Amino acid sequence: MKTSKFAVSPGFEVGGSLFKPEQLALLGSIVGPDAKIEFTTFKQLYVEMDEERMAEVQSQLKQHGLHIYPAGFYTKSLIACNFCRGAEEAGLDMATALNDAVAGLPVPSPLKIGYAGCALGTSEPLLKDIGVVKMKDRYDIYIGGDPKSVKPTIAELFLSDIPPERIIPIVTGLIDYYQQNAKKKEKFARFIQRVSIDALRSAV
């Protein structure tokens, strides 16, 4: 039996992008007892299963509101806060649109993008490759966070006071520049150190 892997996310809502018990039960019943399910650090579940059943299974999961993404060297689905200030104030629409624009893009090394609806930053955007933080009606963008090391890196402020309509073009521009100029398997934080943050500012 040839197996393959894909990622599952619960999507976004006020109160958190967490899997509900009924979603997990549904997932298990649809993928079957032979599948392997792995919990990741970016709020996705990786499902490894019989490749012949994947299309059917993914279709059923989507019908029940779960989000499907590729697994591996791709931009991960947005890691967002719990929108505790409410959908409008915390920017749920922006988070959803940003996720739709960036999730599943092929990249040299897996890329994590964080979103926080206020300066409390409960989604830890400064530990992500790219972090977007809503500051009232504008946004700050941080880049270069990397927690997976004995010497973790905190993201640096890339751009501040950005209007909503510029967020998606800037983030997708960063990803595109990374796609075109990074070495194979080069982490985003190391890529920034090599090319410089000023070069990235000029690129976007």
TrEMBL record:
Statement: the UniProt record of this protein carries the keyword Isomerase: no
Superkingdom of source: Bacteria
Annotated Pfam families: NIR_SIR
Ranges for domain Nitrite/sulphite reductase 4Fe-4S: 93-204
Stretches of the chain forming a coiled coil according to its record: none
InterPro entries: NasD-like, NO2/SO3_Rdtase_4Fe4S_dom, NO2/SO3_Rdtase_4Fe4S_sf
Keyword Cytoplasm: no
Keywords: Heme, Iron, Iron-sulfur, Metal-binding, Oxidoreductase
Protein name according to UniProt: Nitrite reductase
Taxonomic path: Bacteria, Bacillati, Bacillota, Bacilli, Bacillales
